Amino acid sequence: MSRDVPATGGDPVPSIPPISALRSSRATARPPVPTIRVPAARAIVDCGVYVDGNRLRGKFTHSAALAEVRARGTGFVWVGLHAPDAHQMNSVAEVFGLHELMVEDAVHAHQRPKLEVYDDVLFLVLRTVTYVEHDSISTAREIVETGEIMIFLGRDFVVTVRHGDHCGLAGVRASMDADPSRLARGPSAVMHAIADHVVDSYLAVTDLVERDVDQLEEDVFSVRQVDVDSIYLLKREIVELRKAVAPLGAPLQRLGQEASLGVPKEVRRYLRDVQDHHTIVAERVTEFDEVLSTLVEAALAKVAVQQNTDMRKISAWVAIAAVPTMIAGIYGMNFEHMPELGWSLGYPAILTVIAVVCSGLFVTFRRNDWL
């Protein structure tokens, strides 16, 4: 313990704290680094106001767009965001009155396709897929890449949040802007257009994946050496594709049948058509999975047969090599009284016996397809 030491002819000198304590106090005294909050506008890709199916000219913030619609008493707002953070999503949620659980899902993503209802707001999650081009299935590292689109559907607004670089909605918005009659049906028409776009992309991806499955099937039954790892890779990608596609069936069925969700009857008809296309995709994915399971079994059986053939060849050559090895081992013994040791033709006779026996074994194994 430090103590005050009196100075000569003066007041006591206070003790000096150690340097480590000074450093610690300075560290604790530093103010926390402020978190930089990026405004919501940085995450908003597009924001449009639609009245009677036509987009109003000019640029709007998400809050100004909703205020414009509610001041008019007609129309709706379509806001598109890309990978917003918590602050940006909360800013949008405050304007449109979105539930905090929906906001949490939109920020963290990695959700299964689902449909939830929060008061008068529908929350639909779609998984997007894209095909990763590759020269050969044996050199590919990824075949299917997934992303997400989340749709918040209200009476006078639709908010879309997407995660992933391949799932842009610019084409969907452009086609909708060019067809005011569809936009005149309200925000649910936008939801249908997005769902239809996503399911159509499923069909395109399954067409390309089918090409890889057919190539693997041809290789398994024609190529001598089967690359089992390629089959496992494609099967893993099919499992990922199935997880993205299959769960969407139930939400589409609800949207197409339940009038209580507030979706207009005409839009529900179009959603049932999307559901039919989704059923086709789901059946194709299931078929791919079954085919690949069969290919795995066939490839493993082919490998087992090949290993059995190799073992038979090895065993045949071992049997042939055992003959000269045995004879050489016997005559390598240092005994005096062994047959034919004193015979001048003994050595060529033994070589002849070895050649005849080995040739006989070779012919026998060859006839039995062991060699």
Automatic annotation (TrEMBL):
Family statement: Belongs to the CorA metal ion transporter (MIT) (TC 1.A.35) family.
Gene3D superfamilies cross-referenced by the UniProt entry: CorA soluble domain-like, Magnesium transport protein CorA, transmembrane region
Keyword Iron-sulfur: no
Species annotation: Rhodococcus gannanensis
CDD domains in alphabetical order: MtCorA-like (cd12830)
Matching InterPro entries: CorA_cytoplasmic_dom, CorA_TM1_TM2, MgTranspt_CorA/ZnTranspt_ZntB
Membrane topology: Multi-pass membrane protein
Region called Disordered, residue ranges: 1-30
Membrane-crossing segments per the record: 314-333, 345-365
Keyword field contains Isomerase: no
Protein name, entry field: Magnesium and cobalt transport protein CorA
Pfam family, one: CorA
